[in-house]
Design brief:
4-stranded antiparallel β-sheet, 3-stranded antiparallel β-sheet, 151 residues, alpha+beta
Length: 151
């Protein structure tokens, strides 16, 4: 094999290796992604409590640290005027997440809704806001990941 072919091949291997290392190094810097979000609301009836359940798939290249979930009414004057922000999610409860073999975490958030809760919260369209935080600190916030209707 000629020396020129060997040197060209070696240069190509080094270049491809550098691109691969660059790709792997920056893969962990991608923010998490929340997909397939679905909200389900069951109203309380008689002596039976209702429930609110939200599920979503979260992809985070560095691993998922947390998924915070907040259901909020579209008619809320404060949020309707000013919008909801990631800062508003600081004290919100987290979903329970389990990572599958493909690296995607399946997250579920569920709360019981009593008759008193339902009466106090009003009827109409609601949004589900999410804040996903990856192990490397990357975040993604979506104030309208999903919607549902009460009453």
């Amino acid at each position: 094999m000629s020396r020129r072919i060997v040197l060209s091949s070696a240069a190509a291997v080094i270049a491809l290796g550098g691109v691969g290392a660059f790709t792997l190094a920056h893969a962990g810097e991608r923010p998490p992604a929340v997909e397939n979000g679905a909200a389900h609301y069951t109203a309380p009836e008689g002596n039976r409590d209702g429930s609110f359940t939200f599920t979503a798939d979260v992809t985070a290249p560095s691993g998922l640290k947390d998924l915070k979930v907040l259901a909020w009414p579209a008619a809320d004057p404060a949020f309707a005027k000013n919008g909801l922000t990631a800062k508003d999610m600081a004290e919100v409860e987290s979903a329970t997440c389990r990572t599958a073999d493909d690296g995607i975490a399946r997250c579920t958030y569920r709360v019981t809704v009593t008759a008193a809760d339902a009466a106090a919260s009003g009827k109409g369209t609601w949004y589900v806001a999410t804040l996903a935080t990856a192990d490397d600190g990357g975040t993604v916030f979506d104030e309208k990941t999903s919607t549902f209707t009460t009453g």
